[in-house]
Specification:
heterodimer, A: mainly alpha, 19 helices, B: 362 residues, Rossmann fold, two-stranded antiparallel ribbon, 15 helices
């Protein structure tokens, strides 16, 4: 069951809202219990075999957190924390990276090894790191272990469970604690519903319409020489597809959160308008960037140990970011490329600071950033390095005319996608959503409950339903 | 609830209703796949074969059904009607239909056709093996499962709006008045068919260059791989449930022939295969079911697989071969059991050789 399926939109969602509403009447603990129950049902609908893994990981990390609370010696606490991190990482390594490691070992050893039959549990990359963040906070005494049900609701809350945003314990715990105490926030059904429907529209109408263009180019890349135009259109189609797909999912998660009175952190903020790659990473998958910054880059030393070390740390962080997405060399290459981009961007900033006359050159920042991002997506989407090389080859030196592969290019769809990404406000701006609830005056285009937004939401919902017959999973489900 | 919030929800419903009224009335008027009323125009477009099948199964009446992939697209329902004494046989084959797609087609027909007596089910050992992995991207699941919401989806689906538009415009290659055309594909590939002998020559030459990598397989000795075993368990189990769950329906499974170069590669050449072991295990699993029968054309080398000009590519054969296969199914001459299979397989291996190149007519 995925957010964009009729079963979810017309079945599970209304059912869960009614159940939550009833539970709220019974009290805060019931409401939290209902959230954990609903999230377990939601997760089981994908594959019930992995529910024990999810709940087991919650229970295990909660036990560790309690031990960290109880134990007084710092060395013993460090050992407990370290062991827990190793166990968490071992689980994700087994499910996600064992075959990658085996295949590379086989190549190095010159032997053939049979891959292990492993099914990747949905959302494991997300909930494993959220668990680690939680015990890390308890270890650093930022917060106590708290109550099991509160913690479980933070981790398994179904709007973010499968594909993010990557919420930290501290993002949600105070909201669930308030709920437990019977202080329920004012329901935001209208704006929540609006954001959810916009996300649904982005996924079903836009992303899934772009998918066949990207799929055709990436699957034909090795069959016949791609034309210059085909390669660019395929790469651009994927660039827009992944944005609409993942930001659509994040919008739906945020909208669903609001329907339950929970505010989730932002995950996207018009990344393709970014004028440089640093800005891109401040607006693309923002919760992953935050996680990598706070739990990888800064612990590695960040920028505190000189310029060279900073660049090394950036590269290491982005390589890990690439590997987090998937066990494959294409993801490593994608991460490495972004690491290089970031190093160049930081280097350029240092040069600009030294020679202010370079500043006007920043005008080429936006197109340069966009093209760099598009080229990196080729590695991200390609099934292997040779496909990535052939597409990149065609994007740089491909023939302008010839038979090509005959992939459908859908120029009008790409133009419309580009206009939406480059010219329109993003969903968050449109909805006037601020997770930190700072009151800002509404702009003319921003959401307010009433006839106009009601009608527009209804039309977008219907348009999305029209495309629900071609259910395709979200790209980030595989991570 | 204050006034503006009330207006929001009222207008949301109004917006969705207004926006749905247009596609709803459009699809209702044209009913492009005959989903709820029979029509004398049948959708034949290759991209929408599954859609057309879903409609036909709902609104036409038949007592025999051919379920298969493009390999069965040219089978002639009349041969089965005469041979099996059936009133009306429909061909529900579709391009790229995998085993799980075909099972879904058969299940829909069983649900919707109380008079269904016989299902002719195309099968290949490698399909059984890969059953749990493959689902055609074209398969419109919503038209085949039991969810009541699907009827609503039909009326507002973007696909159906598009096909209704085409039906309204009367575009020729989308619709036909002959229901037997719905599964066929040969006419659309006349140029492809014309080049068949030359293509087969180049294939045979290519396989000749590869040469045999090992001697033919002895199914009694070659164990199945763990992966094939797992896939078989899943695919064979699904088929077992289908056949065992419908004891009043006769299930006539048939394995179509394939070009000699493919047979050679599978059993003597570089590709290798678990197919014989998978097939034997499948026949063993199904042996107790009285309504199950298996007709094997995988070992018909001289008169089918190696026959000059009988194939247009490695797997697709000409209608004449299909007719011959259907007549043999009716006669029961290719019927296979777990007892007969090893002997027949060994006999086939003994005669397995690549033929001389076909003569190409200019």
């Amino acid at each position: 069951m995925i957010f964009s399926s009729p079963d979810f939109v017309f079945g599970f969602l209304p059912f869960s809202l009614v159940l939550f509403f009833i539970a709220k009447r019974l009290g805060g603990a019931w409401a939290i219990g209902a959230i954990v129950l609903l999230s377990s049902i939601f997760y089981s609908a994908w594959d019930v075999r992995f529910l024990p893994l999810l709940l087991g990981s919650v229970l295990f990390n909660y036990t560790i957190a309690q031990a960290l609370d109880r134990v007084s010696g710092e060395r013993r606490r460090a050992v407990i924390y370290g062991a827990a991190v190793v166990i968490n990482l071992a689980a994700i390594c087994y499910f996600k990276y064992s075959n990658f490691a085996l295949s590379n070992f086989a190549v190095l050893a010159g032997r053939s090894l049979t891959p292990i039959e492993v099914i990747l549990p949905l959302g494991i990359s997300f909930f494993t790191f959220q668990n680690i963040v939680y015990i890390n906070g308890v270890w650093h005494r930022k917060y106590p272990a708290g109550r099991l049900l509160d913690y479980a609701s933070c981790i398994v809350f179904f709007p973010h469970l499968i594909a993010g945003p990557i919420v930290l314990y501290q993002d949600l715990i105070h909201q669930f604690q308030a709920m437990r105490a019977g202080r329920f926030p004012k329901p935001e059904y209208e704006v929540g519903g609006f954001i959810f429907v916009v996300g649904l529209f982005k996924k079903l109408v836009l992303a899934d319409s772009l998918a066949p263009v990207a799929d055709a180019v990436f699957s034909n890349a090795t069959n016949a020489p791609l034309l210059f135009k085909e390669a660019w259109f395929g790469a651009l189609a994927y660039t827009f597809q992944i944005y609409f797909d993942f930001s659509g999912y994040s919008d739906m998660a945020i909208g669903l959160g609001l329907l339950f009175g929970v505010r989730l952190p932002l995950n996207f903020f018009s990344p393709y308008k970014a004028a440089n790659i640093i800005d891109f990473w401040h607006t693309w998958h923002m919760t992953l960037s935050r996680f990598l910054r706070e739990y990888v880059y800064i612990p590695l030393g960040g920028n505190r140990r000189g310029r060279t070390r900073r660049y090394v740390n950036l590269m290491l962080t982005m390589l890990l970011g690439g590997l987090w997405h998937g066990a494959g060399w294409t993801f490593v290459a994608w991460g490495a490329l972004h690491g290089i981009y970031l190093c160049i961007n930081h280097g350029w900033r240092a040069l600009e600071a030294r020679w202010p006359r370079l500043k006007p050159l920043g005008i080429v920042g936006w197109p340069l950033t966009f093209v760099a991002v598009v080229m990196a997506w080729v590695f991200f989407r390609a099934p292997n390095m040779s496909v990535a090389y052939s597409i990149l080859g065609a994007m740089t030196t491909g023939a302008m005319t010839g038979p090509g592969t005959g992939a459908p290019l859908r120029e009008e769809l790409l133009l419309m996608s580009a206009a939406i990404c480059f010219l329109l406000p993003n969903t968050i701006q449109w909805a006037g959503y601020d997770p930190y609830q700072a009151k800002q005056p509404l702009q003319w285009y921003q959401f307010r409950p009433g006839a106009a937004f009601g009608f527009a939401t209804g039309v977008m919902l219907l348009a999305s339903v029209a495309y629900m017959t071609r259910i395709s999973p979200f790209i980030y489900f595989q991570f | 609830m204050n006034r503006s919030k009330l207006l929001f929800w009222l207008f949301l419903v109004l917006g969705a209703s207004t926006a749905s009224a247009v596609p709803f009335s459009y699809v209702y008027r044209f009913d492009p796949i005959s989903y709820f009323r029979d029509d004398d125009r049948y959708l034949v477009r290759q991209d929408y074969q599954f859609h057309a099948i879903a409609g036909q199964i709902r609104t036409t009446t038949f007592d025999g059904l051919i379920v298969g992939s493009s390999l069965s697209g040219n089978l002639n329902p009349r041969i089965f009607e005469d041979g099996f004494h059936l009133r009306e046989v429909r061909n529900a084959s579709a391009f790229g239909a995998g085993l799980s797609d075909r099972i879904a087609v058969a299940q829909l027909a069983i649900r919707k056709q109380p008079s269904l007596r016989t299902i002719f089910f195309e099968i290949k050992p490698m399909n059984i093996e890969g059953a749990c992995r493959y689902r055609s991207s074209r398969f419109p699941t919503y038209l085949f499962d039991k969810n009541p919401l699907n009827d609503v989806l039909y009326f507002v689906s973007a696909d159906m709006i598009f096909i209704s538009k085409v039906k309204r415009a009367g575009i020729g290659d989308f619709f036909t008045s002959n229901p037997d055309q719905a599964a066929r594909w040969l006419e659309a590939h006349a140029a492809h068919v014309a080049g068949a002998p030359a293509r087969m020559n180049s294939l045979i030459a290519k396989v000749r260059n590869e040469g045999p990598s090992h001697r033919p397989i002895d199914i009694d000795k070659k164990p199945m791989s763990d992966e094939a075993r797992r896939q078989l368990d899943c695919g064979a189990e699904a088929l077992f449930q289908l056949v065992a769950g419908n004891p009043t329906i006769r299930f006539v499974f048939f394995e179509p022939p394939e070009h000699i170069s493919l047979v050679w590669r599978r059993y003597a050449g570089a590709a290798g295969s678990d197919s014989p072991a998978v097939k034997l295990a499948f026949l063993r699993r199904m042996r107790a079911l009285p309504n199950f029968e298996y007709h094997d054309f995988g070992d018909r080398l001289a008169d089918m697989s190696a026959k000059c000009g009988a194939f247009v590519d490695e797997t697709h054969f000409l209608p004449a071969v299909g007719d011959e296969m259907q007549r043999d199914i009716v006669a029961g001459t290719a019927r296979e059991t777990e007892q007969s299979y090893p002997t027949r397989f060994r006999a086939m291996l003994e005669t397995l050789d690549l033929p001389e190149l076909c003569e190409v007519e200019h």
